[in-house]
Amino acid sequence: MTTNNQKLNNVIQQCRETGVKLPESMLAIVANLLSSTPLSFAIFPTLRQSIQIEHETEDSYIEFEIFDDKIIMLRMTNDRIDPDQSQDEREVTIDEMHEIVWGLEK
To answer: Of 30, 73, 76, 85, whose Cβ has the fewest other Cβ atoms within 10 Å?
Structure first.
């Protein structure tokens, strides 16, 4: 099983091979988050000069797109009671991102 840190190292290697330059500050944010959780994430660079991390369960999906100057979160849940409340997309802070991920661990 590939760990989050190995996945991040693969992303960094892909970026080097393709010439994509990601700021060290962005990589540090991602590394810090991934090392602080036992959850497994899919991790990949985007064409928007960001890193996207995703976590999916049977009834929910969350992704964070980490840019140099902001973090965008998209969260979708399988809310059968109120489908209008099943999607949330917004900018979050680093602290909010950590709190959301810690909430997923419960």
So the answer is: 85
